[in-house]
Amino acid sequence: MTVVLEHQFWDLSSDDEGWEVTLRFSGVPKYMRVPWRAVTRFHDPSVGFRLHFDYVSPGPGEIARAASDTAPPGGESTVVSLDTFRKKE
User: Fold this and answer.
1) In 1-89, where does DSSP find H-type helix?
2) Residue 51 and residue 67 in contact, taking contact as beta carbons nearer than 8 Å
3) Sign of torsion over alpha carbons 77, 10, 23, 31
4) pLDDT value at residue 11
5) 53 or 58, which is more confident?
6) Domain boundaries, the chain
7) Nearest to 44 by CA among 74, 73, 87
8) Could you report the per-residue pLDDT of 12-53, keeping only the tens digit for each?
9) Ramachandran assignment for 58, one of left (phi > 0), alpha (psi -120 to 50 degrees), beta (any other)
10) What is the CA radius of gyration of the chain?
């Protein structure tokens, strides 16, 4: 399923579990919630920015190890702003 957010959408928000938005179909508002694991691609055509996500399901007992393997040194995370990739006008 492809979701295009372009002109008419409301209440876009996100949290640790996923994102949500209200769209209108034939004038009828519909709420939609999408878990992050369901997102496979992101594309912003206005700036030519694309992301592709590959998820690997951890096996039994691998969740704790994966969390420690991916934790950044010093416990700090890095935040990348999408503004870095947008066209400057």
Assistant:
1) 62-70
2) no
3) positive
4) 92
5) 53
6) 9-70
7) 87
8) 999 999 999 998 888 889 999 999 888 888 888 888 889 888
9) beta
10) 17
